[in-house]
Give the backbone structure.
Amino acid sequence: MISIYGATGIIGSYFTGLYGGQSVPRPQLAPTNEEVLYLISTTSNTYSDPLLHTNTNVDCLMQRLMACQEAGVKTFNFISSWFVYGSSSAIMRESSPCRPKGLYSITKHCAEQLVVDFCSFHDIAWRIMRLPNVYGGPDKSNGQRNALHYIVQRLKANQPVEIVSGLTRDYLHIYDTCRAIKLLLDLAPVNDIYNIGAGQETRLSDCVNFCARTLNSQSEVSLRPHQSHEQSLHMRLDCRKLQAFGFFPSISIDQGLHDLCTAQKFSTPVHFSMEKKSRLP
């Protein structure tokens, strides 16, 4: 059994729906198991509430790291983000330099360093998993996180959509994201960093056009230039370390986007749980 901080969030609730785990209640600091999966994080990269990022991504983490050390935790698994790379390069490897931009990115990078230093000092094994642009799952769109959900909502309502010209991202469905996390928990050596992603660049404009056709949307789609203060224009994660454990996405971007626009049967893990049961003899 694994203790999960942030089990009620989008990824946390999906992961526990697939694989179980023991949720650590929000007010509680100490876990009850020797292995921890840590998902607590802010979700935007804005300056609207600067202290929210430091309080959540740094202070909250340090309080729980100290509680884990006191509770005798053996392994601390930290979920991070590709945002820590900033604009280091188009192809982002675990060894690439991190040049984060914005408070979310900077505090997530700081959090990674705190995990490594604290756990190393107290002889706690650690893993850091850097996620790509995750889509799918419960629809809690806010324009910052789950941008594809937000765009689909606007396309359905035939509202204007503005996107960054030429922007590319490494998109991975939440189901495959959770599969990758579980695979690394089970098989990956500790004290290392792992990229999680599809390992390919996809143009945001292609995603929007695909969704617009699927929905027969009348939305006007406009392009704006990339701004210097924004994250890298082009992004693809080098996922060879993850792929070495046999991971490849099971849901293509077209399948995932079509489901997002129509049936949304992939939005909860129930579909996959039922599918597994149906294959049993």
Remarks:
- Residues 50-71 form the longest helix (22 residues).
